[in-house]
Amino acid sequence: MTPKSEEYLSSDIRDIADVKLAPIPAESSDKESSTMVSSTPHPSRLKYLSLGVLVLQTTSLVLTMRYSRTLKEDGPRYLASSAVVTAEVLKIFTCTFLVFMENKYSLRAMNLLLKEEIVKKPVETMKLAVPAGIYTLQNNLLYVALSNLDAATYQVTYQLKILTTALFSISMLGKRLGLYQWLSLLSLMAGVTLVQWPTNSTGEQKVLTVGSQVVGVVAVLMACVSSGFAGVYFEKILKETKQSVWVRNIQLGLFSFLLGFLGMMVYDGQSVRQSGMFQGYNAITWTVVVLQAVGGLVVAVVIKYADNILKGFATSVSIIMSTLISYFLLNDFHPTGVFFLGAMLVIAATFLYGYQGKPANGTVKV
């Protein structure tokens, strides 16, 4: 999905939404459980509509981001750090509007809630500084990755965030992985290794806009690690409090905006002072920013109305679409048999990780 876009309103909100939509505890009465289940239907039409939107959003974000970083223009290219900051601002406004809706469109009620949860609880708010900094780094790394890798290779390699998230979940949350999940992680590592396997190509060498393919791969791997840690850290915080997901994301967005703006001024301050923060912005750039900002909301809807297997299906379809479009339209990707084998292993791993086997005999704890 994508720089979400690895949640905070980014592709990593999968873990966040799972917390809010966790099963009802065993201590709850059967009557309460049946009432809640019956009151939250999962319409088939809405389920598949949300999946379709997720596939479209993930694929569009990767391809437009890649296109925007390779497009040749007369003027200066837009700053990736500026795009990250702008996306954070849009996310804050989006979450604020959702809180406004939750409070029945009452400005007074919303202001009281935000003051109570953010201003009067500085310790809880400061806990979000850590994942905010990591997410800011991650989003910038994804721009670096897509400046150096074709969309298909990026999409497949970025699925390593499943592995990093699983490992951090085991070490930080004490989660257990079933047999099928361990097998999926092995398949995932094998698939990504094949995708990155060097080939002796006799055709034209791909022209990279910045750096080399090694830089892109390192950027993706660092983004996977940061995505896994930040997502699990955020999940841990959410489990310890009863705050709304949207309120938490406002807190996260505020820190991300401050840190992102600081990073922009440190690394691109001279360019900002000379040509402005929005230098090089065009319709494609704004499309990338909006897609990155709303990506997490789309994932939240999918989590609510779909399940892990269908999420895996959406991810797999997105990888296939990115590969086809990257080959036929962007003309920056020439697949090999080894790449296809690796991609199939990654897609299979995505499905297998969401498969619910029998936990009684197939559970392994590390």
From TrEMBL:
MF (Gene Ontology): pyrimidine nucleotide-sugar transmembrane transporter activity
Q: In its keyword annotation, does this UniProt entry include Transmembrane helix?
A: yes
> Where is this gene product found?
Golgi apparatus membrane
Q: Where are the bilayer-spanning segments?
A: 48-67, 79-100, 179-198, 210-234, 246-267, 283-303, 310-330, 336-355
Q: Main localisation, per the record?
A: Golgi
Q: Which keywords belong to this entry?
A: Golgi apparatus, Membrane, Sugar transport, Transmembrane, Transmembrane helix, Transport
Membrane topology per record:
Multi-pass membrane protein
Asked if Transmembrane helix is a keyword of the record, the answer is yes
User: What Pfam families does the database record attribute to this sequence?
Assistant: Nuc_sug_transp
What are the annotated GO cellular component locations? Answer: Golgi membrane
What is stated as this protein's family in its record?
Answer: Belongs to the nucleotide-sugar transporter family. SLC35A subfamily.
Under the heading PANTHER family, the entry gives: NUCLEOTIDE-SUGAR TRANSMEMBRANE TRANSPORTER (PTHR10231)
Q: What is this protein called?
A: Solute carrier family 35 member A3b
Q: Which species is this record about? A: Poecilia mexicana
